[in-house]
# Entry
Amino acid sequence: MGDEHPREASALDNLREDIRERLESDKILSPAWVLLPLLAIGIGVAVAIVAIVIASIGLAVIGFEPGVDFAPEEFFVPPASFFSPAVGAGFGIVAFAGVISTILLAYLGYLLINRRNKHFKRQSRFYDDLIAYLRAVSSRKRVDAEVGLLSLERTARVMREDETEKNAVLWLILVLVSQLLAILYVLYFLGKDIRLHERMEDGFMEDSNKILESLGASVEVRRLNPIPERSFVLYLILTVVTLGIFGIYWLYILITDPNNHFKHHIQYEDELMRKISTIT
# Structure
């Protein structure tokens, strides 16, 4: 029995380290990021209005009157010398705003993918360390929990195989280069992966709690905002039909769903460590 306590203590130290890493891996992003598309649209509209006003002033200065015919050389040459630079500058600003908006949205995609990767990696380590701890304690207390532990190991292995890393930098480049196709796929896997992860995680927590109960502890933390089933095809159709407006909501949930998921981890893991401390 003397070699059981070091294994137990080592697993417990690893769990504490996994929880400390939560500050880095489980970033809570501000929903204000969804304002990026609106900002770009607003800049474009404002510049377009200014360009129209400048063009109208230019026409008035050269004496243009609606309904009066002009010869091509009379109509086009003077206005071009007066207000076309302003109009060109307006279109340039619109294009610049669009480029900046695209870059910022691509960077947001990078942040979302990066935190997905970091969270999945941390959780994989956390599960392995929790299994090691439960195995050490059950062995020390001579509690038969092997069936439950094998179930936990199977769940952790499946999650590790399914939750492969997506290279955030590569996808940032692909979004900037190929635009639509890359963006759609990023939207697809960001929504799907976190939902499937949460479903598998609920099963893991349920099985681990049964073992904890047999060891004299129990963790009961209800998930307040579970991620619902959402149809990628339906969301895509609604985005197209609403000319992109629904896409703002789509982006919003891709930010807030993981936020809520991470907040549940704070509650669950903190409660887990409190209950573990009561096991003797």
In short: Confidence is low (pLDDT under 50) at residues 73-82. The first helix runs from residue 4 to 20. The chain has nine helices and no strands.
